Each structure stands twice: as structure tokens, then as C-alpha cells.
Amino acid sequence: MIEMLEGRFFKTFVTVVQERSFSRAAEKLGYVQSTVTAHIRQLEQACGKKLFNRLARGVEPTEAGEEMAKFASQFVQLGASLAEAMNRLEEPRGTVCLRALESFCVTRLPLFFGSFFETYPNIRLQLETGFFRDVVESVAHHRADLGIVSQHPERADLVFYPLQEERLVVVASPELGDLYDSAGWEGLSGARVVGFGSRCVYQTAAGELFSAKGLMAKDALEFASLEMIKQTVSCGLGVALLPEIGVLEEVRTGVLRVLPAEPVVLTHGLIERSGREPNAAARRLRQSLLEFFGKV
Questions:
Q1: Closest CA to 242 of 221, 226, 223
Q2: What is d(CA 197, CA 206) in angstroms, rounded to the nearest whole number?
Q3: What is the per-residue pLDDT across 213-235, written as a single tens digit (0 to 9) for each?
Q4: Of 46, 44, 11, nearest to 25 (Cα)?
Q5: 161 membership: H or E segment, kind and range
Q6: Among positive and negative, which fits the CA dihedral 72, 77, 83, 85?
Q7: pLDDT tens digits for 100-156?
Q8: Strand-pair category, 158-172 with 238-243
Q9: Closest CA to 61 of 69, 173, 243
Q10: Which residues pair with 267 in a beta bridge?
């Protein structure tokens, strides 16, 4: 019997019972009356019983119809409960693990997080910082739901969504800036390179740029914090290649100077594991980041 039945037949049946009319049931369901009649006929054929008696004004369930109504109502309710359960899976709630470069978190994400958590208070974010390879490996090995990296990882197991172009500029203290003015890059040949270390893509780009200018990366000072790098550079201990957005205030106030050099442009992007269906909270965070950075 069950093989002959469809959920819409039960919904039609329950609506006819409620309305006591094929025509009113059709109107409520958005069907033509012949469709309602066909659905009821299918149910009658499946159970081998007549389900409604026709009256002068409408219909009423037969004894078999009354019995059928008990089960049909349960079936319709079960369908509604199932739909509600599936919809709850789409509600943005739960924990999302996001790994990103510390400099990107400091310069780009505070404004985003303010509006995001106001809109989605049931999402809990586990934010961890790391360098490019750390972020890539965390996402690839399911230790993080999403990652933000400074360039396309070019890996088949990861999906990359471009977010934001990042301009990197060379900064130095005012004193080293004056030395550059008088002697050019040769005057800075003894200056140290200050950066995030060899695991950072910024440092790789800095090494190439400074090597071309005659600065020796072997004397590099490495820090994990953007703030520490800026403080070290402002004290005259070296030069650094840093995100332009991260030094705007220091440049404006004269704490740091931007030296004439070709800016390095990288494209930050969001990564997730290919073929992995993220949970609703991770999907919402991904969509919101893409919308915030204007990529949707």
C-alpha cells in the first residue's frame, strides 16, 4: 500500500477533511478541482475503501475516511516537522574555526566582526592567527573550517575565494628615511630587515625586494606581531615591508616613513576544503566575508 502513496495525497486528503469540500480544498491548495479528485481517488485505490460521502453541500469522511484521517494528519505533521528540522540546519549557529594572518586580522577584520556578530549572535568564532603555510595546512587537514591567506595556494584540495588586494610598502624610521634621502639604498646597506619570518609570504616578498636593493636578509629581525614590527622599525632598528593599510596612522603622524619602492601587491583570499560541506555557521561566515569585501 505504501508504495502507491505520496505525501501530497495525504496533504490533499487532510485539507478536504478540514474544508468538507473538494472545491474549497482545491482553492486552498492552489489546485484545480480535478487534481484534488485524482489525489483522493489514488488514496481510495491504495486502501481499497471509499473515503468520502458526497452531500448536497460538500463531503464528509466515511468510517474509513475517519480512520485514514488519523494517520494522514500524523503524516502531514511529520512532514512539517521534518521540514522544520532541515530549516534549523540552515540557521547560522554554532562554532566556526577561522585561521588568518595576524596582520589581516588587525587591519581588515575588526569592522567586519562588529556588524557580523550583531547580526548573528548565535555564531561563536574561534579565531586563530598563523602564517601562510600554517593556515593552508590547518584548512587542508580539517583543523579549521576557513582560512584567510595572502595568495592563492594553488592546491587542488582547497577552494580559493579572492577577498582583497593588499599593497605592501617599505617603511623605515624618519632617521633612516633621512639617510635614504642623502645616500639612497646604498645608505641603508647596513640596515636590518624586520618582518614576520621565513614562514610568511610577506617576508618572502621582502627578501626579494630588499635583495635587489642590496639589503642583506641574513640580518633579519623576526616578530610574529605587526605591532612589534612597527615599533622596532620606528626605533630605527631596520626597514620592513608591511601592508599599507597597517601603517597609515604611523605614516600620517610621522612615526614611520614610506620609502620610494615599487609596491608589492598580493591578493588575500578565503580558503576552504574542497569537497567538504561546511556547517551553516561556516557557510554564513563565508558568505558574509565575501559580501563585506565586495566579491558577491
A1: 226
A2: 10
A3: 877 655 678 888 889 999 999 99
A4: 11
A5: strand 158-172
A6: negative
A7: 988 888 888 998 998 898 888 889 999 999 889 999 999 999 999 999 999 999 999
A8: antiparallel
A9: 69
A10: 165
| Rounded Cα gap, residues 84 and 209, in angstroms | 57
- Cell triple for residue 171? 617603511
Cα 272 to Cα 1, 92, 139, distances in angstroms: 46, 18, 6
CA–CA distance, 280 with 122 (Å, rounded to integer): 11
The CA distance from 99 to 117, in Å, is 17
Nearest to 35 by CA among 69, 27, 3, 18: 27
Cβ of 14: how many Cβ atoms within 10 Å? 19
Please report, as a single letter, which amino acid is at residue 121: P
Mode of pairing for the β-strands spanning 221-222 and 146-149: unpaired
Q: Please name which of 272, 285, 264, 283 lies closest in space to residue 153, comparing C-alpha atoms.
A: 272
* Set of cell numbers at residue 219: 640580518
Distance CA 44, CA 72 (A): 13
CA distance 99 to 195: 20
In total, the chain counts a number of residues equal to: 296
pTM confidence score: 0.63
List the grid coordinates of 27.
482553492
The mean pLDDT of 9-28, rounded to a whole number, is: 93
Three-state SS at 87: helix
Beta bridge partners of 266: 166
The angle formed by the CA atoms of residues 250, 208 and 150, to the nearest 5 degrees, is 65
Give 53's strand partners.
60
Q: Please give the Cα distance from 15 to 22 (Å, whole number).
A: 9
Taking CA atoms, 219 is separated from 22, 170, 190, 199, in Å, by 87, 17, 9, 16
Kindly give the interhelix angle for 7-19 and 63-89, rounded to the nearest 10 degrees.
120
Query: In 10 A of CB 267, how many CB atoms?
Result: 14
